[in-house]
């Protein structure tokens, strides 16, 4: 009933969109007026973001039954919208997207889910991040005859979330068989759980369309990625410059005023409004602008029940959640771009090569356009140090020099002569707590003396000795050499995990 009433209100009061390309010299001004409802600001910002428009300034007012917004926008190159045809097309798209019969659907909440559509099956994953996780997930999907046509992966604060669109390898259509979907979910959940006994993966099935970036925000918010921990190297992330977020109450108007100052970037407003909406806050007024290289956002909010932020604990939670919303999309790691003809198993092969060369993926965008794969990966060294230029050269040789291009800042690459692997006498740091835990996990994993595997070098020889580990030969070894003692295994081929281990010893967990 509420949904039908809302549609009736929209039909009686259709959104009004006015685009002015003359009054501002460096931006196109878009004014949107509409009947007010919870989430309307997110709908408008999402539509503008989906049009690849950059919002440089905005004024929002929705104090009452009517919603009035003014946005200054440019394209990705910083230019105003061009000809009249483009302007009219943008205006029509916004009207249709916000109208009563629009296809806008608020994404349902779930942690790990599979939803079928006519073209592909959408798989959603959340779990604890670890080196090689995307490689393991891709290998499982490949073994289940699933072709990944689109995917987006985010990692933040030791958590990982992914939305992947897959098709059947043989037919190229969506996977709809319930038994097969259940098998996919079961095996992927096993991969996500890994050895983490504190925060395992959950499964759910839901039908309906989803907005990928919207879902990723919801999934990471539900997974509490805003909760910071000093474990697993998370403390190192705290050393990075943090967004400046403040929350104060305006007692006279019963508003809470949220102020954000941080580095400007595309989709920033979408990210912050997503989180405020997910936290059930209503934005009554807002002022958005740019100050040099930085962004300034000011929101006047109340909870959906009409109350402002009422406690210090709630205030801190708002700050933490907005910081996470700003950070989780951004990656400062080395950017690699892949462009080649699409084929079944491509993502599995590429991420396996990354893993074998001790690279871990912190963010990924996988798309397929007209039979061509256009993928972007952000990678870092699995040990936490700068990526070795020699490693990147090896990866590009394996994948294809013309297929994989380095797009990041060259300063992010460690010169070959500075690599600790280039000389046995190079100075090495002590193993991190994460590396120590990984080594112990390997001992637990390979307790069966019958297993023969290659294991990657967790430490350099000097670091291994400093951490109380012994060095083993660079060749396949039996786990008899590991049982009952702590060891670091030197091997150039990368960490043998997931499907590689299962093929050697199916009972390994």
What does this 3D model show about the protein?
This protein is of the alpha+beta class. Among the domains are: 113-234, Alpha-Beta Plaits, CATH 3.30.70.260; 433-504, no CATH class. Helices cover 30% and strands 29% of the residues. It has helices at residues 2-12, 40-50, 84-98, 133-143, 178-193, 212-222, 234-237, 268-278, 312-327, 346-356, 389-399, 433-445, 461-466, 499-504, and strands at residues 16-20, 28-35, 54-61, 66-74, 113-116, 121-128, 146-156, 159-168, 204-205, 244-250, 255-263, 281-291, 294-303, 334-341, 359-369, 372-381, 387-388, 404-406, 413-414, 452-453, 470-472, 477-478, 487-489. The strands form five sheets. It has a nine-stranded mixed beta sheet, sandwiched between helices. An eight-stranded antiparallel beta sheet has the order 1-2-4-3-12-13-11-10, covered by helices on one side. A hairpin with a 7-residue loop joins strand 1 and strand 2. Residues 103-113, 203-208, 231-238, 417-430 and 447-509 have low confidence and may be disordered.
Key descriptive features of the protein:
509 residues, alpha+beta, Alpha-Beta Plaits, nine-stranded mixed β-sheet, eight-stranded antiparallel β-sheet, 30% helix, 29% strand, disordered C terminus
Nutshell version of this structure?
With 509 residues, the chain is an alpha+beta fold. It has helices at 2-12, 40-50, 84-98, 133-143, 178-193, 212-222, 234-237, 268-278, 312-327, 346-356, 389-399, 433-445, 461-466, 499-504, and strands spanning 16-20, 28-35, 54-61, 66-74, 113-116, 121-128, 146-156, 159-168, 204-205, 244-250, 255-263, 281-291, 294-303, 334-341, 359-369, 372-381, 387-388, 404-406, 413-414, 452-453, 470-472, 477-478, 487-489.
